[in-house]
Amino acid sequence: MRLLILGASGGVGRWLTRLAAKDGHQVTALVRHETAFDPPPGVRVLRGSALEASDVANAVDGQEAVISSIGPQRVNPRNPWSPLRPPLHVAELSARTVAVALERLGPRRFAAISAAGVGDSLASSNPVITYLVRHSTIGEMYADLEAMEKVLSNSRLDWFAVRPVTLIDANPSRRTKTLQRFRTMSVVPRADVAAWLLRTIADPTPINPRTPIIGWW
């Protein structure tokens, strides 16, 4: 599959490029000019911004599918009350830019990373994340991800957005599955999120559900 990866320099994005190249996909990564990125062998790197229409149009040309691991980030990732790093609304705006570019090419698959607790999944989340969504900048992050999901749901793309539980660094496993609840101790490796995205986007069968919660337990 000819596959474009956005956010390839991030935690999940690096796993995406590594695993996609290993699986034999023709991988292109769109990476910002100022971001250091050492791609796996065989990965083509384009420099540009996922918020710039011309950069995105150039990157999606000839691709069969796009995976985005772009999302909002805090200045201090360990502090839930830390302000968000610019650009703001990055998940929503990048999804909108990509959707416009892809819709011009006809039906294309687009996958993105959201988060457990976003949108209607907040009702299935643990009290800690519910409190943080309502009282910290995590709420701003989740609002951006929910807006991203709405952009995709209003598009003509064949899309899905996984909602992983708490991300951890660990080697790939076979333990990740769809979950009904986001529990306090729920975790999922970034590598497993990447593998899930790749399996789903390469599967030609209809995508259902479009916003699954995924994790170990």
Tell me what the structure shows.
This protein is of the alpha/beta class and 217 residues long. The chain has a single domain, classed as Rossmann fold (3-Layer(aba) Sandwich). Helix content is 33%, strand content 20%. It contains six helices and ten strands; from the N terminus they run E-H-E-E-H-E-H-E-H-H-E-E-E-E-H-E. It has helices spanning 11-22, 53-60, 90-103, 127-135, 138-153, 190-202, and strands at 2-6, 26-31, 44-47, 65-68, 109-113, 158-164, 166-168, 177-179, 187-189, 213-215. The chain has an eight-stranded mixed β-sheet with strand order 3-2-1-4-5-6-10-8, sandwiched between helices. A two-stranded parallel ribbon has the order 7-9. The longest helix has 16 residues, at 138-153. It is globular, with a radius of gyration of 16 Å. The model has no long low-confidence stretch (mean pLDDT 96).
Which features characterize this protein?
single chain, alpha/beta, two-stranded parallel sheet, Rossmann fold, 217 residues, 10 strands, 20% strand
- The name of the CATH topology is Rossmann fold
Helix content: 25-40%
The total count of strands amounts to 10
Tally of discrete structural domains: 1
Which overall shape is indicated by the principal axes computed on the Cα atoms? globular
Rg for CA atoms: 16 Å
> Uncertain segments of ≥5 residues (pLDDT<50)?
none
In angstroms, what separates the terminal alpha carbons?
31 Å
Structural class: alpha/beta
The number of helical runs is: 6
The assigned CATH architecture is: 3-Layer(aba) Sandwich
H and E string: EHEEHEHEHHEEEEHE
Q: CATH class, please?
A: Alpha Beta
Strand percent estimate: 15-25%
Major sheet description: 8 strands, mixed
The chain-level mean pLDDT equals 96
Cross-sheet strand order for the largest sheet: 3-2-1-4-5-6-10-8
